[in-house]
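Hello,

Our lab assistant flagged a job as stuck in the queue for most of the afternoon. It eventually completed. Since we weren't sure the result was trustworthy after the delay, we are filing this so someone can double-check. Below is the sequence as submitted and the structure that was eventually returned. Let us know if re-running is recommended.
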Amino acid sequence: MLKTKILKIFFAAILVLGISVIGQEVIAEQMAVITTTDYSSGNLASISEGETTAAIDLLPIHSDNAVTAYEGYMYVIERKGADDIIKLDPDNLGESGIIYQKSMGNDSNPHDIAFVSEHKAYVSRYDDTALWVIDPSTGDKIGEVDLSGFVAYAGTDSAEAVPQMSSMAIAGGKLYVTCQRLKGWGPGDLSLIIIIDITSDSVVKTIELERKNPCDMALFGGKLYVACTGSWWDPTDGGIEVIDTATDTNQGVLIGETDLEGNLSGVAMVSASKGYVLVMGTWPNTLVKPFNPVDGSLGNPLAEVSSAANVAVSGIGKLYVADRSTEHPGIYIYDTFDDHLIAGPISTGLPPNSIAFVGEATTDVAEQTSPELTPLGSSLGQNYPNPFNASTVIPYQISGTEESFLRLEVYDLLGRRVKTLVCQQQDPGTHLAIWDGRDLSGEPVSSGMYVIKLEVDGSTKTVKATLLK
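-- returned structure --
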């Protein structure tokens, strides 16, 4: 009854305004920023959403590199041998767009940045024992967390010098740091995830991994999907492990390397029922395979890609793959709904190495004046109330006569997934979802504009929602 009343109010409002939503088209406002390398030099490239060519050779950078984005800015991590972070204005990715270039400590080999706010972030320093806390607005160090007690074989005569801290993620007020804890080039006694309270900057727990040498991890739905390589010389001893961030427990190995048929080198999540994993055979041959995080089942490798170095999902659900194959290097873009190739290879000058997105994915809503309500078909209605300050209702409609699989998700303007509202089969008809302004970890999100995305029947619809507190 309540659903019917709300829908009547929603449709009545459209009739009063004389507006019918008859179509939505994504506007190309988001941009992929790519670091490139030939292992002796590096550079930046960029691809605007919807484009099939890249702007190349934008800024010379160190050959060992990575890139990420936060609050509308790009952060280039220059790793071993440069040991610094470059903050860039995305509207100017050249020399004059550099806001700062700050050292993270000599020979520290920074690997990742995890942002708490515009004035607090963590930097994992692979070749050091101190996790740095910086102010990302200035790049200045404001603190550190001592991880010297977490080296491999700690407390023995065989103890290593550093814990090899690498990938990081923040969930529920906690920072999760992977520590590879290697012995030389191979796995040591065990690998850990160290959990740090982001208020006190103190270690509160460690989680032992069943497999070793975590090379990457992705956060989705309150779970961490950890890609463990194990030994690079053994393509059977790694796997994807799942960490529940609500209970901080290890739920075990979801998929082992025997099933994956190679060494893991990366992971990315699209939804509660789909992710992608990078699987290396004989170097540098690396395939991208879709997997189901619910049951661990695997799909066929993505077509065309043969030497993937990195993958990233855009704000409108496209998968960008950085492929470093000798024959056809470049960026390949796929539809995550059915994994078909949309574009590529897109040349980035030097072979691509790392990808991050900046900007917003918006929609152009076609409108018409009509005394009658135009049938919506499979569509996404505008959330209401909008703006909202507690919760908002999101109406959507599924056309046809049979069930359809759909995903309804919330993204921020940088293209980061904030919340999955629906991910399942549903009957045709009109449905409602409610978003309470919280993220995947159950934490309230900040005021601002968000993008609600519906993916169903092979198409994607989006609307903007504004949260005011």
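-- support follow-up --
The delay was a queue issue, not a problem with the job. The result is valid. Residues 173 and 259 are 35 Å apart (CA to CA). The chain has a mean pLDDT of 87.
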